[in-house]
Amino acid sequence: MIRALLVVAAISAAAVGLAPVAFADSPYANCTEAHKDGRWDIPKGDDAYWPAGDRDQDGVACES
Predict the structure, then answer these.
(1) Which of 31, 33, 36, 42 is deepest in the core (most CB within 10 A)?
(2) Residue 57 — left, alpha, or beta (φ > 0 → left; ψ -120 to 50 → alpha)?
(3) Burial 26-64 (b: 16+ CB within 10 A, else e)
(4) What residues contact residue 45 under an 8 Å CB cut-off, 6+ apart?
């Protein structure tokens, strides 16, 4: 029983550790927030760019 609990705990900890932090570097939680702030077509290299906002992976997030 203890062994099973340890396995579950280890798997849970690994899953949490692997969870993506998509918006950690961006001031926006999503493109809707960026658009409300007047931000569209955010290029890679801009502080507001984040990969999850770039749906087609062309280097531009929250495209118009």
Answers:
(1) 42
(2) left
(3) bebeebeebeeeebeebeeeeebbbeebbeeeeebbbee
(4) none
pLDDT digit string (tens) for 24-36?
578 999 999 999 9
Place of tokens 């926006």: 28
One-letter amino acid of 11: I
Q: Is the pTM of this model over 0.85?
A: no
Amino acid making up residue 47: D
